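Q: What does the assembly look like in three dimensions?
Context provided by user:
Components: two
Sequences:
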Amino acid sequence: MRIRLIHTEGFRISAIFVAIFALSAAILAVSVLVIVDQEFRDQIVQFANADIAAVKDGYQTDGENEAREVIKQRMSAPGASDFFLLQRNGRRLAGNLAPMPPRIGILTLPYPGARPPHEILGTATFLAPDLYLFSGSDLYHARLARQHILRVLVWVFAGAVMLAILSGVLVSRGFLSRTDAIARACGAIMQGNLKARVPVRGTQDELDRLSQAINAMLDRIAALMENVRQVTNDIAHDLRTPVSHLRHRLEHARLHATATADYDKALETAITASDEILALFTALLRIAQIEGGARRAGFASIELADFLHQLRDIFGPVADDARHTLTLSILQDASIRGDRELLVQLFSNLIENAIVHTPGGTRIEIVLQVEKNVVTVSVRDNGPGVPQEEHARLFQPLYRREASRSRPGYGLGLALVSAIAELHDAKIRVESMDGGGFCLSVSVPMASPARSG
Amino acid sequence: MKILLVEDDTDIAGHVSHALAIAGHDVDSAGDGLQGLSRALSGEYAALILDRMLPGLDGLSLMKQLRIKGVETPILLLTTMAGIDDRVAGLEAGADDYLVKPFAFAELVARVNAMTRRADIIGRAAATKLTAADLEMDLIARTVHRAGHAIDLQAQEFRLLEYLMRNAGRAVTRAMLLEHVWKLNFDPRTNIVETHMSRLRAKLDRQNAKDLIHTIRGTGYILRAD
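A: Here is the predicted structure of the complete assembly.
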């Protein structure tokens, strides 16, 4: 855990910030110390200069005795120097320092006998050619102040670093716990629990968005898996029927055929039956492939009026032969983006449904209309219609209405329609018309001219 | 005609060779892609029939190699995959036609015949007139005459007749008509082909007793004057 923590991005960022903070704090501390030290020295020198001026003043007014008097007073006064020395010819006349070789200006002297050793800072001058005066203060206070400041800075610095590390650890642990949750969800899915999802906090932060994207991906994968499972089941179930029919026919021929013609007939029906089985396979595979959604790359702009005219020309005579009428009403032309071949199949299915599932004399109408940038193509008829309660089931693969079981087909037409519509982001609406009849509408957003590719 | 069949399934290869031989073709077989490529490169074949899945070199790559090397022999691609994308990929890689297994042998023979025929026509540039027996089609004026009498055809009927005339004397199947005349790449549940065909026949044969379009049972149709 500890090592993983150090390797998180949150921790790394915290560490960088701590380093930057430490560097700036160090620069600040050094600057403060230098400034404070300088300030102390300046103040000591100022005191010393003031004391020397006062002693000089006393000496010039009332002579040597007055100077001694001033030094005595100054030594016990607050706001003045700690140490004085007035000497002549190497002999102390006043003050609390031992005589020393006279040097003038700003001086630093060792503090006599102090433990630990520290220093006296002060200024020295000659009151008269043989009268030497020094005034100064202990630098020990400056050092104490410096140490004090340094101590405070170190504590503050240590506290800040601790806080930064702590927040780094907390942030990283928060991050880790969430990435762990994602990893756990992925692990669960790998174990076979396809329903596992990454938790989403609802804060819309970057991890939330990542989690949502992963969940959306998982939903899609689950849908595809479910689809594959469904299709596999359907094939397994529904293939039994035509295959067993085929088998019965062949068996029947073997038992009862007496002439070559009988065998010919049996073989022909067997071939037809196997063709139907293959057609079922093809249709199921096609639905699965379309639901896989890999064909959007082939989308192009399609002029619907022209497109529907072609379909009307193809199916019009077919409808006539079945004693239906097929008409096309273009209320407003529109273009959509789509896969031409798949859309041909979609609308062919709808038109063929209308032709196959209604009695002769039925009017079938294809209507193209546009409302609020939504293009709708409806295929409606005035046939017997489909009861409301069956509408939802119409699009299930292999669902066949009781009434149409005697007709050829496997109930895959509308499942295919539904898959193609979904690929085009189209909505399908099923309505029963007033006074009977059935209407199936496909609505697609209109292709905007600006969009390409 | 000399035809090269590249197919690794010996069972299918045997049946296909037999069917083509009966149809009067001379068939050579290759069992893998590399052997197929080296034979096809000889350029002595009128048509190639390629399986898409082949050991050595797959059908699509073989086709691309041939086209790159300038071999323009018509190719019919055989495949077990019925996907739309597969067909598009096959045609884009240079196939002239595409057939999904399993297929009826009549379908295969009709397609091979149409394909080699097409190769002949390309050589003759774009014809503006098609004729068959006493039938005459003007592709530019879009008119049809039979024995001098004008026949009024709908757009769909015109295209159907044009396809039949371009393949005059050769059988065309329902699937070929659906693909080429109506651009339908699926099997419809209604009698689209039969319906349009019967209308076309009725118009063509109104004044003349002699049928031009004949139905071949189990295969499709043929336009032939006899």
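Follow-up: Chain A has a mean pLDDT of 84.
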